[in-house]
Amino acid sequence: MRILRSIVSDQRDPAVLASYRDPPCKASEANIQQALTGHYRNEHLLALAQSLSVYNTYQELVMACNQHIEASLVRLAAARTVPEAPLPVPRHRKLNPSAQAFDIRGVLYRVVGTDLTQLSGIGSYLALKLIDECGLDMTRWPAAKHFTSWLALSPCNKISGGKVLSSQEPSGGTAAPAGGHPEPHLHRDCIECLLSPTI
């Protein structure tokens, strides 16, 4: 991103631009320098500048949305009883690139009363989406099987003569978070934990 912003700011030296590469980038600085050597056409520079402007605008909107989500969660947490046990050590160390810029895990722990990210396959971002879609009242699903079916995780087994002819997950017709499925590791034990009366 720094390279693109520098190009829009009239920097054309390939050596200078290549020096801005991110350390994890697999391409070497020499390869990037070679790729950045050429002619910069005005219409392409205009398109790049406008694309960056749109990107900046969306980033500002996302930040404003995150602030609104954070304020809503803090307001919900203030109305809940503070859990007696401290927040457990994070199970997932890897950060989700889609994660919000604030401490979702800590606020959700105060809202829910338990750390959903301790379940296999659930990070803070997915936990937030689950609470957003399901709410805190899990009594709408009498058992884990009902909740699994609602999430469209129950396989559609076609059985004839005692033999399974085909088995696949149903497509569509689900209110699962973000219009899709939770992580594949959201197995029965995790679902039963979500349906626990402590939530």
From TrEMBL:
Cited InterPro entries: Transpos_IS110, Transposase_20
GO biological process entries: DNA transposition
Residues of the Transposase IS116/IS110/IS902 C-terminal domain: 116-167
Lineage top rank: taxon: Bacteria
Gene Ontology molecular function, alphabetical: DNA binding; transposase activity
Region (Disordered): 164-183
Name under which the protein is recorded: Transposase IS116/IS110/IS902 family protein
UniProt organism field: Modicisalibacter xianhensis
